[in-house]
Design goal:
By secondary structure, the protein is mainly alpha-helical. It has helices at 5-14, 22-32, 42-55, 62-71, 83-97, 102-114, 125-134, 142-155, 161-176, 185-201.
């Protein structure tokens, strides 16, 4: 999946939109390119969309998952703790403004909110797929994972090194402690072992 006007128009058509807002696309691209970002950038979005393209058959409503990926880190300020809420609210407003069904707006909002904790015990296939795609970086090739680690550190450059290392270790240990990092069998089979190796090494 590409990042461009043609794919944007196709996406909103699949969502049943009455109108397609090209200005919203420009706003999102600008947001993903903000200077405080080092990992949560268009690179991350492209990687996520690429995974969705390969695994779209796992989704019940792939267009909604795709839009949720566009919005899941649309608002990103490393100094705030309400990024997911603000991103989800922006997504819901955009879907409503496009004339889509209210339930589409609510489902996309819920998908984005699920990325707040990545702790999901439900059985909705779209939520499970979205979360696995967002965490696919943990199972990346070691060189890409190491690059990701550096990018995250750069986003939290304002946090002193000892405190950063302590908090980052807590996050990584939290993923390692899970019975499964990946919720779908496809991602578990493809990435689980490498993710655990990356996390243990980190």
């Amino acid at each position: 999946m590409t990042i461009g006007l043609a794919s944007w128009q196709r996406l909103w058509g699949e969502l049943g939109a009455a109108t397609v807002n090209g200005g919203l696309l420009n706003q999102l691209v600008a947001a993903w390119g903000e200077p405080q970002r080092h990992y949560h950038t268009l690179q991350h979005l492209r990687e996520c969309l690429s995974y969705l393209e390969a695994a779209s058959m796992l989704a019940r409503r792939p267009a909604e998952v795709e839009l949720a990926l566009w919005f899941h880190d649309a608002v990103y300020d490393p100094r705030r703790d309400d990024n997911e809420q603000r991103s989800a609210d922006w997504a819901r407003a955009g879907v409503r403004a496009a004339g889509c069904a209210p339930e589409v707006a609510d489902r996309v909002h819920a998908l984005v909110m699920a990325t707040r904790t990545h702790a999901y015990a439900g059985d909705d296939p779209d939520t499970r797929l979205l979360l696995d795609i967002d965490l696919s970086i943990l199972g990346a090739a070691p060189a890409r994972f190491d690059d990701y680690q550096r990018q995250i550190r750069a986003e939290y450059a304002h946090v002193p090194e000892p405190l950063y290392r302590e908090r980052r270790a807590q996050v990584l240990r939290g993923f390692l402690a899970r019975p499964r990092i990946y919720l779908t069998d496809a991602f578990h089979d493809a990435l689980e072992a490498r993710a655990r190796g990356n996390l243990a090494r980190a």
